[in-house]
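Appendix B. Chain record.
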Amino acid sequence: MSQAFLNQIKVPATYIRGGTSKGVFFKLTDLPESAQVAGEARDKLLMRIIGSPDPYSKQTAWAARPPPPAKP
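Structure tokens predicted for this chain:
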């Protein structure tokens, strides 16, 4: 089993997508106690939820459209 799966916790959430925008929403009281106040614990949890850093080190910002042409 991968190390990435060993430390998972359940956090109730709502995932909303509209067009190309998306968001994950939580009730503050559903977050772990350490993440119920602004700070490093909350930042780390939210970054992990959105998949940052990408464990595969892939840049996906241009997944929906090609990158702009390189400047000469």
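Further analysis of this model is presented in Appendix C.
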